[in-house]
Design goal:
Layout (H helix, E strand, L loop, with lengths): L1 E5 L6 H12 L2 E4 H14 L7 H9 L3 E6 L2 E6 L2 E2 L7 H11 L2 H14 L5 E5 L2 H5 L5 E6 L2 H14 L6 H17 L12 E4 L5 H12 L3
Parallel strand pairs: 1-6, 1-7, 2-6, 7-8
Antiparallel strand pairs: 3-4, 4-5
Helix pairs in contact: 1-9, 2-4, 3-5, 4-8, 7-8
Length: about 220
């Protein structure tokens, strides 16, 4: 079974997808972390984040995979654990710029599809249901009110030891929504066969219970 979970930043996709996969005994694939890892790599190499060709070459020559240690997912980029760097304000601000590049996305989607060839998988991102796993048996779209999404992102950053300015976070999320919704390939959108869940007033466990209720219907 393949389960696709799409949605904007701060809607709770990764947290829900990770726990859902654990509950079901499925493989969890965080595609957003892959784009964040590539963004981190591009910054480390001082690449121009507006130069699509250089980012395309970087994507072709960068190996990103996931490892699990004590039930925690680690993101490995060219044999280096970069997990602790991926939720920084700098990455938050730049990842959408990198992820919007069409050539780069062709490389990443191919890698993600290959990862999704396992028998049972939960994959989250922004274009999973449409591009990466169009044959997924279940497609969910998680959303939430902007103030809730800002609050969640702020809490995430505080927990990682970063100073937080909620006005800046809101501007970044609004801009990311605009960029993700209008990019040429893999735009953020609700599909005709998407099951939409507003997570604004729901806990992670409540969202997972709703998702499982659909899985039980088959």
């Amino acid at each position: 079974m393949k389960i696709a979970i799409d949605g904007p930043a701060g809607a709770g996709k990764s947290t829900v997808a990770r726990q859902l996969a654990a509950d079901l005994g499925f493989v969890y694939i965080d595609t957003g972390a892959m784009y964040r890892a590539l963004t981190w790599k591009a910054i480390q190499e001082s690449l121009d984040l507006d130069n699509e060709e250089s980012l395309y070459e970087l994507a072709k020559n960068t190996e990103i995979h996931f490892e699990y240690n004590s039930h925690e997912q680690k993101v490995i980029c060219n044999n280096q654990d970069v997990s602790d760097y991926l939720r920084s304000p700098r990455i938050n601000a730049e990842v959408s710029k990198v992820a919007s590049k069409t050539l780069l996305r062709t490389v990443m989607v191919a890698q993600q599809r290959k990862m999704g060839e396992v028998k049972s998988v939960v994959m989250d991102g922004r274009d999973i249901g449409e591009y990466v796993l169009p044959d997924a048996e279940y497609k969910f779209f998680l959303t939430a009110r902007i103030e809730k999404r800002v609050m969640r992102r702020a809490e995430e950053l505080r927990a990682s030891g970063y100073d937080v300015d909620t006005d800046t976070i809101e501007k970044e999320i609004v801009e990311r929504d605009r960029t993700d919704s209008n990019r040429e390939m893999g735009a953020l959108k609700v599909l005709e066969d998407s099951i939409v869940i507003d997570t604004s007033e729901l806990s992670v466990h409540e969202v997972i219970a709703i998702i499982k209720s659909y899985l039980k219907e088959d």
